[in-house]
Amino acid sequence: LDGTGMAKLRINGQALEIAMDPATPLLWAIRDAANLTGTKQGCGGAGRCGACTVIVDGAAMLSCAVPIGSLEGADVTTIEGLANHPVTAALVAEEAIQCGFCIPGFACAAAALLQQNPRPSPEQVDALPNLCSCGCQPRLRRAIARAAGTMLAPAA
Ligand code: FES
C-alpha cells in the first residue's frame, strides 16, 4: 500500500486503486471494489474449493486466502479476463459447464497451468484444487486437453 492506504492493482489489464482494509481478501476487492462478480466464494474462504481461483502474476491463486495488502502492483486476471482464452472456448465445446459455479476458478487454474506447462499430465490436471459438485470432472479434464491442443497447434 502507498501512503494513501490505497492498494494499487491491475485487474484484467485495468489499473485500479482500491480503498479497502489491507487485510481484505483479494476475492472481495475483485467482487466489491472492481465489480467483477465472476469470481466466486464457495467454501467460505477456507481455501478448500478453488471457486475463488484467479491468476496473480501468472500463477493460480486462491483469492479468498490472500490479503490485498500483500499484492501491491500485482497483475490479476479473473474469468472476465479469459473471455477469449482457449480454455473458455474448450469448456463450452466440451459442454463442461453444468451449474457453472466452479467454472470461473477452474478456468483460471487451467489457464495458469497451461501457461506454465503446455502439456500437463492427467495427474497434473487432477491435482488442480478445484472442486465440481456437479460431477463434471471428466468433461473438465477433456476441456483442458482440448485447450492444450488448441494452444499448441500452429497458427493457421
Ligand atoms: Fe473456496 Fe476460496 S472460496 S478456496
TrEMBL record:
InterPro entries listed in its UniProt record: 2Fe-2S-bd (IPR002888), 2Fe-2S-bd_dom_sf (IPR036884), 2Fe-2S_ferredoxin-like_sf (IPR036010), 2Fe-2S_ferredoxin-type (IPR001041), Beta-grasp_dom_sf (IPR012675), Diverse_Oxidoreductases (IPR051452)
Keyword Signal listed: no
Pfam families: Fer2, Fer2_2
SUPFAM superfamilies referenced in this protein's UniProt entry, alphabetically: 2Fe-2S ferredoxin-like (SSF54292), CO dehydrogenase ISP C-domain like (SSF47741)
Keywords in alphabetical order: 2Fe-2S, Iron, Iron-sulfur, Metal-binding
Residue ranges annotated for the 2Fe-2S ferredoxin-type domain, each copy included: 5-82
The keyword Iron-sulfur appears for this protein: yes
Gene3D superfamilies: 3.10.20.30, [2Fe-2S]-binding domain (1.10.150.120)
Listed PANTHER family: BLR6218 PROTEIN, OXIDOREDUCTASE WITH IRON-SULFUR SUBUNIT
Name of this chain's protein: (2Fe-2S)-binding protein
Source organism of this protein record: Sphingomonas rosea
